[in-house]
Design a protein that fits this description.
The structure holds 2 protein chains of 2 kinds. Chain A is mainly alpha-helical. Chain A contains 14 helices and no strands. Chain A has 2 domains: 74 residues; 270 residues, no CATH class. The relative contact order of chain A is 0.13. Chain B is an all-alpha fold. Among the domains of chain B are: 85 residues, NADH-ubiquinone/plastoquinone oxidoreductase chain 6, subunit NuoJ (Four Helix Bundle (Hemerythrin (Met), subunit A)), CATH 1.20.120.1200; 32 residues, no CATH class. In chain B, 68% of the residues lie in helices and 0% in strands. Classes of the chains: A mainly alpha, B mainly alpha. The interface between A and B is medium-sized, with 36 and 29 residues.
Chain lengths: 387, 182
């Protein structure tokens, strides 16, 4: 791409054009995926509550999010009289910018990344952790006690959950020995037992720890105390309406995708299907291979997001003391133990029983998934059948 | 003017503007937002120089940690609706003279220390791997290792953590007097 453009344009213009192209792609991806995920969220919740969900707008209600978007665009953009109007207006954009910047270092394929940083993992974690700033400002600047409570809860929760989240990220970094997401993806080429999650028992546990703490740092239920509607009206976004309100949700769905694809890249084989024992870009060429790669990575991340939705509509909301206790008393010690454990494993056990562990963990996981899948087809006991 | 210099000028102008906003703003939290701009500007400067690790560390420590804690502190300690700062003229003069002295010192010092024409050398700055190795005592190509400073900083941080835990511990009330019934 750079070579092609530099034949026609001066080098500084190439940089600007490529930057604009990458930014436009990321923003349109965030917008389009948020529309689809909001639709999916409504369908999933409807399914779990034995309802139908949106049906009128388009096939299967697919255009519902678009209709919502038009409604939000035409809504009046109000600011409370007592609010600090400058901070109130800027807060949604801060939250959105943080989620957007997270995408800059996320690879969607082998070399398909806006900016291939050598410390991509660190950068993504750093940027995503600053999303909380926008939410806190929204809570503070609204001039409403419900918003303030929401903001305080959000700050306490996210700052605490960042610690075990970072500790669980250290585990795959120890295994791969790099901070570059592209290199990490390349290391997991081939069959699915090469994925980092099956590398050793500590990585296996670290994946679940990362997923739970990432759910918490996206303020998704059961950790959505910042907007607990039964206690705080709507928490930090009580006073927002119209397009500013929707920016918070663009940021939320964007960061959900960002942490899910981070989990995929760190643990679940990145852009590899797990069934093709070669790197797709080498066999199929750069563009066709990366088309497959980005499809795989978006598919895997969508699966993780569906799990987040499943959790949201299954579990009741935790209390704030339960949230903090889970983090500080359980996740933090588990995270420390995992980091020490994986260090010892790499030093003493990896060369002895590394290969066997991969096969055992991968095999057991596949058997478990198969068992759950087969149990869907078991004969239903007589008294459960509808009359 | 070359393209990197123009980019740097844009970033530097934004950073300076935000830094002025920090000083001139009347509200504590608005100052914090301007500080956010200044800190991000400095991080972008590091990225422009190719020091990616330093830039990301700046973001995670100052933006994700310090700023969030500052606003959090204002949110839970504030008595009125929005906290304001009222600066007296004496404080303006005092702060302004200290700042201009420091600025003059830094300008003369950095102009003497650095070469007059900075060349953006993106590929020569080490990434996280060599930095980590140097911290663990493995000398880099120039023969420098940072094991002792690293250990001193680690122990310093540990002491700070222990002190913080000590300060924040639950205060036990002196055992209530057991009154004899009878």
């Amino acid at each position: 791409m750079t070579e092609l453009l530099s034949e026609y344009l001066p080098s500084w213009l190439v940089v600007i054009v490529l930057a604009l192209l990458a930014a436009a792609l990321v923003i349109s991806f965030m917008g389009a995926s948020a529309l689809l995920y909001i639709w999916a969220e409504r369908k999933v919740s409807a399914r779990m509550q034995d309802r139908l969900g949106p049906t009128r707008t388009g096939p299967f209600g697919l255009l519902q999010s678009l209709a919502d978007g038009i409604k939000l665009l035409t809504k009046e953009d109000t600011t409370p009289a007592v609010a600090d109007s400058f901070l109130f207006r800027i807060a949604p954009y801060l939250a959105f910018c943080a989620a957007f910047c997270g995408f800059l270092a996320l690879p969607f394929g082998n070399g398909l990344v806006s900016q291939d940083l050598s410390i991509a993992v660190f950068f993504v974690l750093a940027v995503l952790s600053s999303e909380v700033f926008g939410v806190m400002l929204a809570g503070y600047a609204s001039g409403s006690k419900w918003s303030l409570f929401g903001g305080i809860r959000e700050a306490a929760q996210v700052v605490s959950y960042e610690v075990p989240r970072s500790l669980s990220v250290v585990v795959p970094i120890c295994v791969s020995g790099t901070l570059s997401l592209t290199l990490m993806g390349q290391q997991q080429t081939g069959w699915f037992w090469n994925w980092a999650v099956f590398h050793d028992p500590f990585s296996f546990v670290a994946f679940f720890l990362f997923f739970i703490t990432a759910t918490a740092s996206c303020k998704r239920a059961p950790f959505d105390l910042a907007e607990a509607e039964s206690e705080l009206v709507a928490g930090f976004h009580t006073e927002y309406s119209g397009l500013r309100w929707s920016f918070f949700f663009l940021a939320e769905y964007g960061s959900m995708f960002a942490v899910s694809s981070l989990a995929v890249l760190l643990f679940l084989g990145g852009w590899h299907t797990g069934f093709l024992p070669f790197e797709p870009t080498e066999r199929l060429g750069y563009w066709w291979g990366n088309l497959l790669n980005s499809g795989v990575i978006i598919g895997k991340s969508t699966l993780l997001i569906l799990v987040m939705m499943w959790l949201r509509w299954s579990l009741p909301r935790l209390r704030i003391d339960q949230v903090m206790m889970t983090c500080l008393k359980y996740f933090l010690p588990i995270g420390c133990a995992l980091v020490i454990g994986v260090g010892l494993w790499q030093l003493y056990l990896a060369s002895a029983i590394g290969e066997e562990t991969r096969y055992v963990l991968a095999g057991a996981s596949v058997l478990f998934a198969l068992g759950v899948g087969l149990s869907l087809f078991r004969p239903v006991p007589g008294e459960w059948k509808r009359a | 003017m070359s393209f990197p210099v123009i980019l740097f000028l844009i970033v530097a102008a934004t950073t300076t503007f935000s830094a002025l906003g920090v000083v001139l703003s009347r509200s504590v939290v608005r100052s914090a937002v301007w500080l956010l701009g200044a800190l991000i500007g400095i991080a972008v400067c590091y990225f422009l120089l190719g020091a990616e690790f330093l830039g990301a560390a700046q973001l995670i420590v100052y933006v994700g940690g310090t700023l969030v804690l500052m606003v959090f502190g204002v949110m839970i300690t504030n008595q009125g609706p929005f906290a304001g700062i009222h600066t007296k003229p004496v404080e303006w003069i005092l702060g302004g003279s200290v700042a201009s002295l420091l600025f003059a010192f830094l300008v003369t010092f950095s102009l003497r220390a650095a070469q007059p024409s900075p060349v953006s050398n993106v590929d020569t700055l080490p990434s996280a791997g060599p930095i980590g190795a140097a911290f663990l005592g493995v000398p880099d190509e120039r023969g420098t290792a940072f094991l002792l400073p690293f250990e001193i900083v680690s122990i310093h941080l540990l002491v700070v953590l222990v002190a913080a835990a000590y300060l924040a511990r639950a205060k036990r009330r002196p055992a209530a007097k057991v009154e004899s019934h009878g």
